[in-house]
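Here is the promised in-class demo. Please do not try to memorize the tokens; focus on the logic of going from shape to residues.
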């Protein structure tokens, strides 16, 4: 399993050239990630919208798609960076290292499965890279729309070639947007003054917050693999994951890669108090 530290090592500066032989420039790593995710998107489109109409969830289609995309990733990683690891939720914990073992890739082949099966374009795939257990880049691609969101930690976030930032609004109003999950109404009374939407894809929700298209997203029961890439994008755009008690939630606190059994808000911290007051838990 991969256990992540909450803090960068003292000498860790993404993008800064190091003297060790296994160092790879961040630009090369990002280029690999973006090139691969676009190729994977083309592959996924071959399966898109082909869910069996007589079943609510076509497990066969999803399994075939994910297996094919994971095989594609393993092949691409082996060809380009054969000494790098691929996160599987059970990688052994290792001490800080300067060799190639420090690089761990996290590929989530399909977010928004129901949309994918039904031919609804809000779905995608994400890829993130850990350098000595610290997330240094992330990308999320929506093949059906062509939208690519990406960022390097500590730098700007992008939608395609355009820089993005979270909403500059200082308060929420009837034009504000809160993105939620499918069982929202089973857990909360909604006092949000604006539009409350569920688009069926958590990564897309978070990226729309990063662009400022939505003020906040409420997410529930997501795994480290689900959030690793979009966390980099969200923070590069000026947002954060927040627990509902008002504390920031570094996703490094996911223990051993399992699903977090808590609800989180993705948003600018300046809007947290206002959005949180609108969420009344149903007991």
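The designed amino acids, position by position:
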């Amino acid at each position: 399993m991969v256990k992540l530290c909450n803090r960068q090592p003292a000498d860790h500066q993404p993008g800064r050239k190091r003297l060790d032989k296994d160092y790879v420039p961040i630009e090369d790593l990002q280029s690999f990630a973006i090139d691969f995710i676009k190729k994977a998107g083309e592959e996924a489109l071959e399966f898109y919208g082909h869910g069996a109409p007589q079943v609510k969830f076509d497990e066969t289609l999803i399994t075939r798609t994910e297996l094919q995309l994971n095989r594609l990733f393993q092949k691409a990683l082996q060809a380009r960076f054969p000494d790098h690891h691929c996160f599987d939720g059970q990688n052994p914990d290792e001490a800080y290292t300067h060799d190639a073992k420090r690089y761990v890739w996290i590929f989530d082949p399909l977010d928004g499965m129901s949309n994918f099966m039904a031919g609804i374009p809000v779905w995608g795939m994400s890829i993130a890279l850990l350098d000595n257990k610290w997330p240094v880049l992330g990308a999320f691609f929506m093949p059906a729309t062509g939208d690519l969101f990406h960022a390097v930690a500590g730098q700007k976030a992008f939608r395609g070639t355009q820089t993005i930032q979270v909403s500059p609004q200082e308060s929420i109003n009837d034009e504000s947007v809160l993105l939620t999950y499918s069982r929202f109404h089973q857990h909360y009374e909604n006092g949000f003054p604006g539009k409350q939407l569920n688009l069926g894809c958590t990564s897309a929700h978070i990226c729309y917050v990063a662009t400022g298209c939505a003020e906040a997203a409420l997410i529930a029961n997501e795994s480290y693999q689900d959030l690793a890439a979009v966390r980099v994008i969200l923070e590069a755009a000026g947002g954060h994951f927040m627990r509902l008690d008002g504390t920031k939630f570094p996703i490094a606190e996911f223990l051993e890669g399992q699903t977090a059994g808590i609800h989180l808000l993705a948003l600018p911290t300046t809007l947290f108090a206002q959005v949180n007051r609108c969420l009344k838990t149903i007991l």
